[in-house]
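Internal QA ticket QA-208
Title: Verify multi-chain structure generation after dependency bump
Assignee: T.L.

Test input:
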Amino acid sequence: GRHGGKRQTQVGFEYNGVTFDERSVNLFAGLCAVDTRESVDAMMGALARCGIRTTRMGAYKPRTSPYEFQGLGAACLPWVFELAGKHGIKVVAMEVTNARHIDEIREALEASGNATGVMLQVGTRNAQNFELLKQVGQQRVFPVLFKRGMGITLEESLNACEYVASEGNPKIVFCLRGVKTHLGDPHRNMVDFAHVSVVRRLTRLPVCVDPSHAIGRAEAGPDGLPDIFHAIGQGLIAGASMVLVDFHPYPEQALCDGPQALRLEQLPALQSYARIIREAY
Ligand code: PEP
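Actual output:
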């Protein structure tokens, strides 16, 4: 293909016992930003009760303002991976903003001695950080979750994935998370989940949707379902195989993106909603 994606990437992959392909639905519900051990334990406990073995946990947070919470960084990794082991989590999606973070994650995982794995997330703000893309491509241990650039063309984002693939790591998931417009929007970003089918047509990458960063608010509509659920539905109907979604045991206390965090009590409903949608389509 034009992006090389057809050559260098594959239709899905398996990592640490979790399959990412056209038929799978992997819910990565978790904390946008790790704050306390109690939050992580509560989050992972809720996942375990639902039989979910994948999560998202932000340790290194790229914030728009330097005065906002920047994430706990490497300091939280030992107890995040310890708790992941306790709750049987197989894959933690975690953003890295610097190549050094990859080593910190690998070392903390090894030290934890448990069977948890990590998917390295490259955020929308680093979608064209070519050096970072090459670094996550050069390591072969962890798969990569690439988040579409919020202000660049889809073509440019697909080329960014080629930086990962061409360095030798074909385990890439392409994540749609909404795009910026100048139009104003009831949501945080213009939801771009109609592009799921476009990405699947142009590449062989499994596609993820992130309704939390796309929508930016947890409020429910007149039918009682949060806009976030409806956006997940759009993504799954179009063939997304992964959903990245923010939760928090106490959204009003979250140090990052609290307004878009769903409550732990909503997790079983989200799980059955995703199941119903996938079975119907
Ligand atoms: C995130 O997933 O925590 C995040 C910062 O997302 P994005 O890069 O899409 O803004």
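Spot checks passed. The pocket of phosphoenolpyruvate is lined by residues 32, 58, 95, 123-125, 147, 177, 210, 213 (CB under 6 Å).
Status: verified.
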